[in-house]
Amino acid sequence: MKIVEATLADMRNTPRGRRQRSPETQKLIDSITQLKQGQVMALVPEGNETIKKLRPRISYAARVAGRKVRIAADNDKVMYTLRSGSRSGSSSRAGAAARKAKVQAKALELGKRRKSNISAQDVIEALTKDGASLGVARPGTMVGAVLRSMPEFERTGSNTFKYKG
To answer: What total number of domains does the chain contain?
Structure first.
């Protein structure tokens, strides 16, 4: 092996697709790319590999493949599957922006109408009453985060906010 100096420009201009990956990592990327919803695959450590070393390799391969996976480690293997409802990055960001806009609009409506404290649960119930679904695992946490970021609201307690106007 010989170590030589290279330029940062060369590094930045090297296409990611041409960078060298180990055959094992490329095989893992390919398996994640071909993974179908509901299908589960597993990595079994061989030689000096450990469960602890395999998890990050799966995460890296999923990131390169542009897929979101759920990873679970057992005593003798690391399993992975597609996350349910996982989408590519830009469409999920668009969905998050739309959810945030829904929450902001409903919170402002409630705040102006009540002129008192509102809770994240109040916003969720009002959205549900209107037939809107947030489609997240923890809606209270999501609504609380949105309200904390809005200058019209001041946090007064755990997921409780005062409308400032």
So the answer is: 2
